[in-house]
Amino acid sequence: MSHLELAAGLGRVRTMMRLIDVPRDLSITALSTLANLERLGSRRLTDLAALEGVTQPAMTQLVSRLEREALAERRAEPADGRVVVVAITEHGRAELARRRTMQAKRLAELLAELSEADRAAIAAALPALERLTARALDTAPPSQGAAG
Fold it and tell me: What share of residues in the chain are helix, strand, coil (percent, to 5)?
């Protein structure tokens, strides 16, 4: 199988993971932004916009919505009080955890429908997929985005 075929297959897996992400009351960009804030810590709006590949005005709107829903908050950066950063709230962390649990449950249901051989093949591929994910998260330029 070629690199392009592997990439296309992984793209289909990403699409499947998005499709089983319920509920759909938050956009993929909103969820990705929350996940990045959880993983990377507080960030400036301009940095978040670059990470997500959106304009700064679009990110400002998104952060305002996340604030209204108490999922994120703006605060002064500790090192320089003049700088405003966006941080995930405890409610935002809890919401991400709840959604991950729901997604894992749905994925487990789908996996139960596969043969034991298919489940074993997926399990065998997990270490390589973890390495691929770590490489992508560690080396992807901010403009490439971290959604997914």
Answer: 70, 10, 20
Say if residues 63 and 47 touch (Cβ distance below 8 Å).
no
CA end-to-end span of the chain:
23
What's the CA gap between 48 and 30, in Å, rounded? 11
Instruction: Report how far residue 43's alpha carbon sits from residue 21's, in angstroms, rounded to the nearest whole number.
Output: 25
Average of pLDDT values for 5-21? 88
CB 84 within 8 A of CB 76: yes
| Domain covering 3-114 in this structure, CATH number | 1.10.10.10
Tokens of 130: 């973890």
* pLDDT band at residue 145 using 50, 70 and 90 as cut-offs: very low
Q: Which of 50, 137, 138, 33 is nearest to 86 (CA)?
A: 33
Token pair of 20 as six digits: 């089983």
Q: What's the predicted TM-score (pTM) here?
A: 0.75
CA angle 130–103–140, rounded 5-degree value: 35
CA distance 95 to 143: 26
Distance CA 41, CA 92 (A): 13
